[in-house]
């Protein structure tokens, strides 16, 4: 790891429980390591990011390339102003979505060029990748059941879009198992968190976290 801090990202489709699991992992890593913890999200992790989030969630006539460029702009600002400074001071950064979301959604779901989307994202963040990426994987039926509420523009997609996005995530995880941890997200919050902790502790090789990983997730 090139930074003194630790960088963990959460990925997955809508309804996978990323926001809850990211918060729980951040709480646990802070207690286990004694480090500062920054829990953030994309888009929306900064003031500028909140404006980008509003645009991408509620602009009904957005072209896929425009969407990809907005995400890249938000990510560049997010990393430069929040993520990288936190890592450089030794903090643990846990983000709900990062550049793999763009690759999965824009290339898988929107069917843009995967290489172009990835190159754009890597350029925006100057090559910064997470130490660990947790993919919370859920099937389409589970995803739909958890999303029985008012949906924003990005959530109002068909099952074919969702399946392409899920497939893109799984391909990326299979191609880089050292960085990715795939967790079955169909269980309870506590079961999922226990699996997340074990996977993250193993990959980060943080002594205190490894020792703490077998404890019950609700502890």
UniProtKB/TrEMBL annotation:
ATP binds at residues 12-19. Residues 10-195 form the Thymidylate kinase-like domain. One of its GO terms (biological process) is dTDP biosynthetic process. Its EC number is 2.7.4.9. It comes from the Bacteria. Pfam families: Thymidylate_kin (PF02223). InterPro entries: P-loop_NTPase (IPR027417), Thymidylate_kin-like_dom (IPR039430), Thymidylate_kin_CS (IPR018095), Thymidylate_kinase (IPR018094). Keywords: ATP-binding, Kinase, Nucleotide biosynthesis, Nucleotide-binding, Transferase. GO terms for cellular component: cytosol. The keyword Translocase does not apply. It is an enzyme of class 2 (transferase). One of its GO terms (molecular function) is dTMP kinase activity. Belongs to the thymidylate kinase family. Phosphorylation of dTMP to form dTDP in both de novo and salvage pathways of dTTP synthesis. This is Thymidylate kinase.
């Amino acid at each position: 790891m090139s930074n003194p801090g630790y960088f963990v990202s959460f990925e997955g489709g809508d309804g996978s429980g990323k926001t809850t699991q990211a918060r729980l992992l951040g709480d646990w890593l802070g207690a286990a390591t004694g480090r500062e913890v920054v829990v953030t999200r994309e888009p929306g992790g900064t003031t500028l990011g909140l404006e980008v989030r509003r645009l991408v969630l509620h602009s009904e006539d957005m072209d896929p390339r425009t969407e990809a460029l907005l995400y890249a702009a938000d990510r560049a600002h997010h990393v430069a102003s929040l993520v990288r400074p936190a890592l450089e001071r030794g903090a643990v950064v846990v983000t709900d979505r990062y550049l793999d979301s763009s690759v999965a959604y824009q290339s898988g779901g929107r069917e843009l060029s995967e290489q172009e989307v990835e190159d754009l994202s890597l350029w925006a963040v100057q090559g910064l990748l997470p130490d660990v990426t947790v993919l919370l994987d859920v099937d389409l039926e589970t995803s739909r059941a958890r999303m029985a509420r008012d949906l924003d523009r990005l959530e109002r997609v068909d099952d074919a879009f969702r399946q392409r996005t899920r497939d893109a995530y799984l391909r990326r995880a299979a191609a880089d198992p050292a960085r990715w941890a795939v967790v079955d997200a169909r269980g309870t919050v506590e079961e999922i968190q226990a699996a997340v902790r074990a996977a993250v502790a193993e990959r980060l090789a943080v002594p205190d976290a490894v020792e703490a990983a077998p404890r019950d997730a609700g502890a």
